[in-house]
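does this look right to u?? S-adenosylmethionine version
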Amino acid sequence: MTAELTEQEIPQQSEEDSTPAWLTALRDELDPTSRRRLAALEPRPDWHCLEIGAGSGTTARWLAERCPAGKVIATDIELGSLSRQVAPNLEIVRHDVTTDDFPEQSFDLIYARYVFAHLRSREADLARVVSWLKPGGLLLLEEPAQFPVESARDDDYREVSLATLEQYREQVGTDLRWPRTFPAPLLDLGLQDIGVEASLSVVGGGRPMSLFWGEALKGWGPYVVSAGTASEEQVERAAGLMYSDDFWDLGLATMAAWGRRPA
Ligand SMILES: C[S@@+](CC[C@H](N)C(=O)[O-])C[C@H]1O[C@@H](n2cnc3c(N)ncnc32)[C@H](O)[C@@H]1O
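got this back:
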């Protein structure tokens, strides 16, 4: 089932953008590399594309500009920020990838960033997603991976970050070890012409990934403290490091993998 917004329901772009700070930070950190990876797949002007869990929608809008004779559908379960993106060939759809469908063989390109790592049913969901690709269609996934944080030198940053990820895992189902297995999930789905790439981020000094992770550490801090895996002081210090000009370390990596549905 899909629930579509009609044209009249789509809010117009407003000057007052209430996109959450963490989503803006993610956009600032990741959009340039995502655009490079998408451009390398050479989208044709008439392609039909899908972005799942499009968040602030900046990449979907960029893709719509690349495919002026085609169409881009951008989905999310939360349309607050996404609905601000307006383009003639961009359709915003409220759609839960774990329960809602699209017709089989609908898309030339399907893209998702930082979505499937959060879904407990990610493997079954991805199998359905691949069925929405036309034969010869492409899937590009970009997902966050925790491996650079596991070797961080600062004890508070490392321990509080890993304790936060443990809470994510218990409460949401998020698994930031899964993307480190790329491209295995795409190979398992029978995709061909596989590619894989990793990019690192730097935290400290209020850089975009710092702002994203600082918000996560602050937001999950009370759960980490009540689980007894870090003290309140540790959480406060680790979150503070994200904004400190004197702190440098690696943040989450992004694992990208792409592949083609056999023709
Ligand atoms: C970490 S954010 C990433 C947003 C965007 N892809 C980006 O990279 O900037 C995860 C996004 O996935 C959406 N999401 C979570 N569960 C979803 C689901 N079951 N179906 C579709 N979208 C989902 C969230 O609402 C959120 O916008």
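The beta strands are 3-4, 48-52, 71-76, 90-94, 107-113, 133-145, 192-199, 202-203, 249-250, 253-260. idk if thats expected tbh
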